[in-house]
Amino acid sequence: MSSEESPKNSGRAAAPVQPEKTSREPSSTRSGSAHPERSSRGASGGSGVEGPLEGSVEVGADAAPALIALEEIRRTYHVGGEEVRALDGVSVAVGRGEWVAIVGQSGSGKSTLMNIVGCLDTPTSGRYRLNGTDVRGLSDDELADLRNKEIGFVFQTFQLLPRSTALANVELPLVYRGVPRRQRRELAEEALVRVGLEQRMHHRPNELSGGQRQRVAVARALVGRPALLLADEPTGNLDTATGEEIIGLFTELHEAGNTIVLVTHEPKLAARCPRAVRLSDGKVVADGPGVEVASLQLPRAVGT
Fold this sequence. Notes:
Structural class: alpha/beta
Distance between the termini: 39 Å
Strand order of the largest sheet: 6-7-8-3-9-10
CATH superfamily: P-loop containing nucleotide triphosphate hydrolases
Shape: globular
């Protein structure tokens, strides 16, 4: 089965995105705190976003329980004889109903963080709780069950089964849950109506436009009514106009109360989100309103 045919959002067959190499930005760029209560100064001129920012959810004994609670997360890989720190003390919390962008350039650590948030990988150290469940020590089967129950994935490349209809693709996560056929058909139809594809339920992916395929992917992510919608570069394979349609759909889903974490390398896309967390060199360097975080100019690494 090809990678496009793999039901990655099912919670059973997902493989982690390969870890990013850390960037070589000078240590002076790491002026921000890794704690979600604070963010960095802008790297140019010493101005920019700093201090407590709107949208942050404090991790602590007195804070309300967060849907996502990452505390001092570190992820280290050994490549040859070299130790690569993909994440270095990341602390972020996301409350229910938030729409948060994780933004950063290649090598920033955002894909590694997405893998950990999506329970596709586990941290080297630190603590991660998803909807109250501490993922430390969970077996592979337990992680798969947690993914299938709590997370709906939306991938850049759609990941639809090419020979199945839109309806059958959306039903797939429910098959893994053992939902009876009639009930899963009803739930899948409801999800497709929700994303505006009630007239395309019986079309196969090659009979749909790129935007319609991504809507099918969103419906598939929503069908199990997960606690979290995790989107990896959801507009990356779409033209500008179609990308705007998908962002409009995410806006509607957020307004309906869904919790969304969107991973992107594009500051313009992060600016559309109410809150953004910016990563650089495996650390959180800014956390606050999307427009403000997206506008920060970090210095380029030497030689680039």
